[in-house]
């Protein structure tokens, strides 16, 4: 797979790669997420860093006077409304603004933000500027589980839940879009002093602690929280990005508070110790992440004196040691700030519904106060090599995995973004079709996945060099034949060197890039402003939007030049595995993560053979032309008036074998469509054995289809096939031109599928490894245990592992025909498809699949445990990874079964309760008590069972102590709710209403909302609108009554389930203490379920 060249954000423990569908990303950044309002009702979000009250200011000479010299500032600026090239499908207006202090701003007017005619503020109007109360902050960690490496197999992430974004699907009530802004500062962790590792990241944390104008540390977070907003920040190697989104009317007030980050932040010396703990807690989250360990090993073994040779996360040890060695950390932070946080280093992006002139006036008023400085210029800085060549680094993995990483350093290619030679090579080296490197390695039984390219992170795309990495997932056989795998890599590289660069391949990439730009789907505003602010650092002003899509100027000599760096003397080799003989070799220890590794010399004879491969295997050849690149971009809705189209999906096929919903898109007007299908199969999970065989079948089928699916993927027509409960879920999404052709191919292959014994062994090995890796993270482990407790049928992954070991090829060959002998399909076609085209898609199923209709009685429906009123169940287990220090406590309160429209008010009140207590919960448990990095309180929806959940993860405290502090907070909620002022209550309510009416930014988001209604069999496509309407009549007394009924400890109807996962530093024997406090310990879950009542199945 070719690694994505498009900039995207991820957390420090980001995936090594996704082996099936998504582009590879490895973007190691220190990521902070604040006050995330758009929560996943399913799993929620976690907290990040504390905020503290500060009194020490920057030097007075550095602090600007508020609201000064507006007329003078207005004259010292240039603007351009025509320079930035935008997509033909983009109806927004752009203005590039250059301030006298050097700051460059991109202002975006989105006419849809106030499309309903809502009141837009006037240029000089400061909406809610005095609305700064004393609520504490609510900073949250955006990535749900912090999972690393592979997508974990098993049941832990399946919650039968709502989509992440709950939006209004109808048009009878106006939908709302948010405003957003971002600032990228051209300084990151490469600027850390040698004796203060993590200082840039620490500075990022400290800027949230208030300013001279808004001294309350929580003012910014509180303002956003009350007005449907959220805020993020992350530190990269050469830049730091801060961004927020907020309800449209409150953009000016949010900008006012945001701008002070860059004008007059407070930095209080006595608050720094507490913030160091926050940075340390963040680091502890990733201690057991294989991807982070590998990154740090590569940094640790980098050439001495190179900027990469450092510890960019920072933790208590690195920052406290700096202070212990005589470094005044506060002075270092101030010096870093004053040297780098000036207008010449900053790129600002604002998107709002106000006219460009209004946005310009606000920018001039607020950001002209930023200190002036020289313009940032990112240029190559050194020719120092990153690593010593000829070395093999073997890193002990946390997870059960064999991964090979080959890295080549290339020249900095920032200025070649229009030609993208690295993408051309990534396309070929990462290809998965016949004749490719991966195809060859899979045929040998040595590998299952391969990705190649320059990653999107700051390390991979720095001004020092680009790092081109190839990551290969090896089988046991591949690990044994490691050097033969590398030999095959160099044979393919030699094929490329001997072949002239092919213009037709470049032209394919060019066509796909222009197609993506021409029909670019709108992103959520918060993501969009970040992407553009990052782009402003690397692309010319003209290409801020289009730079990532452009392929212009075919230069074969440039491709050859870049290819010349692919030789063994410029290669780093890393192996990530648990299968090393550590007894006979010198073990080394990386000092920050404590990970063990071995460094070996690669035999010189091998290096010489890779320099000049004697032969190129005859199976290698360049890919064939891609038949899935679309050619028809016509819009099917061109002649359909909006008034003639139904607001919601309609059921257009309702037959015993298949039921199909359809909605023609009239909103986004792109030649894309999404076709989702839930395929009920015969006895897919009726037994433990069948469940494992179904997993094997799905993985083998994907493997069989991989060549075709990859070609379609390159052409932006993607496919997902997964096991969901007892069903198969098939999704096709992308350009609609070839969608039906691809579906026909998939179904035909499924119908005639006959597994091959050689691939059976490889896929079985992969599945075994995936089962072993399930629950390696304590957060996903707690979710898994909760679902195991609640679901009537739940096959334990350890039992699945035992069964898998007994299965043979004949077992699978006999099972597949039986599995597919009876079927039922329910699907959704949404997008640029006519009703007739959708009906034809249903006929593809009917004409291709020979299975009989699966009866209604035989279709599996999920049933969820009905915990008795007054029950207090607790499940205590140890972490699966013996080195994992983090413990997790998850306290789950069932509410009621969601029976559809009749439950609308209950869902609305539950969401409002969450909105009200979210910030106080975080402030008390995370900021004040410093329990741990992750603090979450949010609703859950598990197969139509509505519930509420509190969750804390900590490396410092035991589950027993965490439980006591959660209980203490819950007991204090009565006083909090009673004392809630009516005005504050109405702020929370109006913010939540706006959130529920927020417009979906793209077709894919809207499809996800529709699909969740179908799979949950609720079919309330206007659910969010109904909830918003219901919220208007909800009073504070309703929320108090809800709390008193379902959460309060004295309630006779309260039900409680606690999951405790004990980290290696906590003693599970402490669990006995809780049994003395009216808890009922559950060790045998299946026995309990055997004697319990279950809710009727609704989905």
UniProtKB/TrEMBL annotation:
Residues 330-510 form the Peptidase M16 C-terminal domain. This is Nardilysin-like. InterPro entries: Metalloenz_LuxS/M16, Pept_M16_N, Pept_M16_Zn_BS, Peptidase_M16, Peptidase_M16_C, Peptidase_M16_M, PqqF-like_C_4. Belongs to the peptidase M16 family. Residues 161-170 have a biased composition (Basic and acidic residues). It holds the Pfam family Peptidase_M16_C. PANTHER family: INSULIN-DEGRADING ENZYME-RELATED, NARDILYSIN. GO terms for biological process: proteolysis. Residues 912-1011 form the Coenzyme PQQ synthesis protein F-like C-terminal lobe domain.
